[in-house]
C-alpha cells in the first residue's frame, strides 16, 4: 500500500518537472522575462544594468535608430528603466531582483536621461543616483 502514494508523488514530480518553458514570462514570476542576451558591441544594442543606486550602460554613446536594450536588475529592490529626452519618454516594466528583459525602442539623435523612476521606502531611485546620460548620434 505504501507504493501507491510514492508512485503518485513521483508521477506528479515528473509531470510538474516537464512543463514547457517559453521565452516569455516565467511561471509564478510575471515581471521576470527570459530573453536572449544582446551583443552590446553590435550597433543598435545596449545593456543597462540596474542596482542600488546606479544605472550602468554598456555604452554612453550610440547610433540613432532602432535600439535593442537588455535590461538587467542586479539589485535587491524592484527597478525600472526610463529613457527621457527630445520630448519623448519610454519606461520598461518593473523588474524584481535578478529580473531581465529585452526591450526595443527607436531613438532620434540627441541627449537622453536614463534613470529608474521608482519611488520606494528608500526614496526616489533617480535621486539616489540611478541616473545616467545617453548620447544618440
Give me some keywords for this one.
11% helix, 1 helix, four-stranded mixed β-sheet, mainly beta, five-stranded mixed β-sheet, 45% strand, 137 residues
The Cα radius of gyration reads 20 Å
Average pLDDT works out at 79
Distance between the amino and carboxyl termini: 73 Å
Q: What would you call the structural class? A: mainly beta
Instruction: Please estimate the helix content.
Output: 10-25%
Shape: globular
Biggest sheet, strands in spatial order? 5-13-10-7-8
Number of helices: 1
Strand tally: 13
How large is the share of residues in beta strands? 35-45%
Report on this structure:
With 137 residues, the protein is mostly beta strands. Helices cover 11% and strands 45% of the residues. The chain is built from 1 helix and 13 strands, in the order αβββββββββββββ. The strands form 4 sheets. A 5-stranded mixed beta sheet has the order 5-13-10-7-8, with no helix packed on it. The longest helix has 15 residues, at 3-17. It is globular. The termini are far apart.
Topology:
Layout: H1 3-17, E1 25-26, E2 29-33, E3 45-51, E4 54-57, E5 61-62, E6 65-73, E7 82-85, E8 88-91, E9 100-107, E10 110-115, E11 119-120, E12 123-124, E13 131-136
Parallel strand pairs: 3-6, 5-13
Antiparallel strand pairs: 1-2, 3-4, 6-9, 7-8, 7-10, 10-13, 11-12
In a nutshell, what does this entry contain?
The chain is mostly beta strands.
Amino acid at each position: 500500500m505504501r507504493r501507491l502514494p510514492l508512485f503518485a508523488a513521483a508521477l506528479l514530480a515528473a509531470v510538474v518537472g516537464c512543463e514547457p518553458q517559453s521565452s516569455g514570462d516565467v511561471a509564478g514570476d510575471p515581471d521576470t522575462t527570459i530573453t536572449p542576451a544582446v551583443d552590446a558591441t553590435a550597433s543598435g544594442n545596449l545593456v543597462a544594468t540596474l542596482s542600488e543606486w546606479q544605472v550602468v550602460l554598456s555604452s554612453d554613446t550610440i547610433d540613432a535608430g532602432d535600439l535593442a536594450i537588455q535590461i538587467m536588475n542586479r539589485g535587491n529592490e524592484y527597478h525600472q528603466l526610463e529613457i527621457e529626452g527630445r520630448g519623448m519618454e519610454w519606461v520598461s516594466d518593473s523588474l524584481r531582483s535578478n529580473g531581465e528583459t529585452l526591450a526595443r525602442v527607436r531613438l532620434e539623435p540627441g541627449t537622453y536621461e536614463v534613470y529608474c523612476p521608482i519611488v520606494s521606502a528608500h526614496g526616489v531611485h533617480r535621486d539616489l543616483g540611478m541616473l545616467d546620460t545617453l548620447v544618440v548620434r
